[in-house]
From TrEMBL:
This is Acetyl-CoA acyltransferase. The keyword Protein biosynthesis does not apply. Pfam families: Thiolase_C, Thiolase_N. It comes from the Bacteria. Residues 5-262 form the Thiolase N-terminal domain. InterPro entries: Thiolase, Thiolase-like, Thiolase_C, Thiolase_CS, Thiolase_N. It comes from Plantactinospora mayteni. GO terms for molecular function: acyltransferase activity.
Amino acid sequence: MANAVIVDAVRSPMGRGKAGGALSGVHPTDLLAAVLTGLVGRTGIDPGMVEDLMVGCVSQSGEQSATPGRQAWLSAGYPVHVPAVSIERKCGSGQQAIEFAAMGIAAGVYDVVIAAGVESMSRVPMGSNRQGADPYGPGVAIRFPGLVSQGVAAELVAQKWGLSRRSLDEYAVSSHARAAKAARTGGFDNEIVPIALADGGVVDRDETIRPGSDAGRLAELPAVFGTGELTARFPDIEWKITAGNSSQITDGAGALLLMSEERAAALGLTPRARIVASSVVGDDPLLMLTGPIPATQKVLARAGMSIEDIDAVEVNEAFASVPLAWQAEFPTASERLNPRGGAIALGHPLGASGVRLMATLINHLEQTGGRYGLQTMCEAGGMANATIIESLA
């Protein structure tokens, strides 16, 4: 069985996912095309040798409806014989693209694959693909009556693990502070591909980071999910989830070049990391955001490792309660958990987030001398992915 290695990993800057955001004027396929061009240019590969392009994308409607990876590849001017596929596992779509690529290499189906992700939330709003429809159906409603939104699930997670409003806000402040430090000291420079705009401008840094964030100001923000019938249904909840301790709606894209070890050696390319193990799980669809806990247990067991073996962990910051609940189950020094901030500071461009986290994790390990990294993502419906990588730098 072939070993899958990551030759390179890049991402776009993160733009606010609303009208006027730094990347809101860029069509999502052109945004991904720019990232693909950056990846191919950095590695020097012949794009015609890529055997498949796997792209995570959640809202596959409107400008993201025509297999965005295929359109991005064509927009980049690359050979038409290279196909693409869209992957949708909610927030874990980009990470699943990476894992499917690695599986294809391990199975001998591919030697060279690009795993990517894209989400333009300013141009294709979250939930627009539902068009007001009920996505659950009567069977789910009978088996799981009263399923809630992710925001309410984040409240239930905070309640179950006894997380205070202050701890959530302080965590959010830390996310911005860590991201700001990484940006200020050049920690993100090696992963960001600048994006050219139609007006001649260039976006080359994350727009979402708020260096001056402080817990006092965050404490003034109202909780946003405890309204109407929910208050009556959950009378014991002290509603704590706010815009300040939640991930940001964001535009972004990212891409990784994966190969078999043999093909990388034959091409004279030095891999940056290898995939050690991966897992995917389902969990309680009401709590919904707890999947990273059993996914971590499963991937550590599969790798024959313990959490003490891991030098850095990326737990997607969909809401501050998610990494804090994970940390309660896997006691980990705070400096090892999301060491460069997360989606609270850098944003959460749904289908691209798994790729963004991986690019950041690889760079962090290289720049700090770490060996093993763990990445895990909570996903709507009560699912989660987890991946362990080894830095080869």
